[in-house]
Predict the 3D structure of the following.
Amino acid sequence: MASRMLRKGIAVSPGVAVGQAYCVPEVFVDPESEAIEHSEVFDELARYEQACEKTAADLKALFQKVSRQVGEKEAAIFRAHKQILRDPAFSDKIRQSILRQRMSSQAALKRLLDEYSAIFKRTQDAYLKERLADLRDVIVRLSGHLSPILKTDVAHLEGPLILVAEEILPSQVITLGEREVAGIVTQAGGSTSHAAILARSRGIPAVSGVRGILQQVKNGDLLVVDGREGHLMINPNSEVESAYRKLQREFVHLKDTLVENCDQPARSADGETIELLANINNLGDARAAVTTGAAGVGLFRTEYLFLTHRDVPDEEEQLEAYRQIIEASPHRRVTIRTLDLGGDKTIPYLGHDREANPFMGWRSIRLSFEHPEFFATQIRAVLRAARNTDGTTNEVRLMFPMITTLEEMRRVRGMVRRAYRQLQDGGIPCAPVPIGLMLEVPAAAVAIESLLEVVDFVSIGSNDLVQYLMAADRDNPKVSHLCQPLSPAVVRVLSDVIAACRRADKAVSLCGEMAGQPRAFLLLFGMGLRSFSMSPAFVPTIKDLVSHLSVARTVEIHRHALRLKTTGRVNRYLAEQLHEIAPNLELFDLT
Ligand code: PEP
Ligand code: MG
C-alpha cells in the first residue's frame, strides 16, 4: 500500500472528488523489452504499422465526432495530426530505429519524444512550440496502441477516475468523455492551463501545480481531490475517505439540483435582477451556456477560432463561424471580443518575434493595430453577423481587449465606423453594434472617466487586470500568492471603476474568473455590479447564490471589505460571510 500523503497545489476548479488515480502516461516503455532481437525486427515493424493504422482510425473517428459535436474548424487539429502520422519524415525515424538499432517501437517513440521535448524546452519560437505539441500528441496516441500494460491498467480501474498528468493534452481533453472523470490533478501550474479551463467548463474539481506528483502516485491509488482548498490526498484512511465521499455525493447532488434552476431568472432575495452571461471559446461552450441557463454570452474569445484554424480564416469563414456561434448562444446574445493573441497565445501566420516580456509586449489590440487589414476583416465579419439573412438583427456587441489609452479607443471606433460605411456602400447587409472596452490594464482603470466618453459599455477583464496591477504573472505558480483578485488594491480599483461606470450610466460587466467565485461575487454584487460573465458551469451556482442576497447586506459587506488591509483578511471575511449566507455553496468556492 502506498503511503498516505497530503499535497498542496493550486485550487483551479471547485468541488470534491474521490476516485482511483489514472496517471496519464506520455509514453510507457517496458524496460524488459526495450531492445529487440534481430529475429523480432520484422514483427516489430508490423506491430508499429498496425499501431499507425489504429491511430489513423482513431483520428478519423475523432475528426468526425468533434466535427459533429463542436464544429469542423475545431476538428481540424485531428486532420493535421493524421498528416503528421502519414508524414514519411516522422515514421521513417521510428522505422529506422527499429530496423537499425533494434529498438522496440515504444522505445523508439520515447526517444523521439525526448528529442522533441528537449527542443521544446529550448525554443521560444511559438510556431515551433505548437508543432512540437502536435507531434507529442501523435506520439502519445500511437504509443497507446503499443502498450498492452497501459490498456490493462485502465481496464482494471473501477469507477470514476482521477486523472493525474503533467498537463492534459487537447486530444485527451476531447476523448475524456469515454470514461467518467471525477477529478483532475496536474503537475503544471496556472489557472489558465488547458486542464484548468477544461475542468472548469465541465464542472470537474481540479488542482494544478502539484510538483512531482507523477512520481508519488501510481495507477489505482485512491485519491481525494479537494478543488476548493487546492489539496490532494493520496490513499487517505477510511474515515477521511468516507467523509470525502459524503462531501462528493453532496457536491454532485447539489450540482444536479442547481442546474434545475436554468429556466429561472437570476434575481436577488430583495428582487434585484442580475444578468448572468457565459464565457465561451467555441460552439460546444455556447451550447453549454444554454443548458446551464446563462442569459447570453458575455465573452466569446475569438482567438480560439484562429488558433484551431490552419491558415487565416477569411471574412466569409469568420462570418459563418460567428453566425453559428450566435445561432447556438442563449437568446442569440453574444459579446464578441476581437483577437486577443500574443502573451501565451500565438499563431504562426501573424509573425511573432521573440520578446523578453510577452505579456507586456506586442499582444492583443496592439498586435491587431499592426495588421489593419486583418483586423478590419474581423470587424466586418462581426458587423455582418449582427444581421440575419431575413433582415432581423441579433444582440451582438463588439469588444476590444487590452485597451490602454484613449487614443486606442478612438482609433478602434474610427475603424468600426469605416468598416460599417464600406459595407453599406457595397450594399452588404450588416448592422451597427455597441462598442466596448475590456478593462484589463491599470492605466485604463485610472483614466476610466475619459474612456467612458467614447465607449458604449465596459467589461472588466479581471484575470489580466489583477496580473498587471499586482505585477504577478497569472500563469506562474511561484507568484500565485500575489496574483489575487481579493487583494485590497484590486478591491479598491474594481470598486472605483464600477462606481465610475455607474455614475456615467454606462453598462458594466465583469468577465474574469472571479465572477464565478462565490465569495468574490458577494463583494462585486455589493459594489453595484449587476452583469457577470463566467464559465457556463458556474452559472447555476451563482444563480442560486444571488437568490440569497440582498442589496443592503452586500453593500455592507463591500463597505467593510474596503477597510481591510490584507488579502488574507479580505478572504477570511468573505468566506465567513458566504458561510452565513449560503453554506451549501461553500463547496463551489475557491479558497
Ligand atoms: C480577463 O483577462 O479577465 C479575460 C476574461 O480575458 P482572458 O482570460 O481571455 O485574458
Ligand atoms: Mg484578458
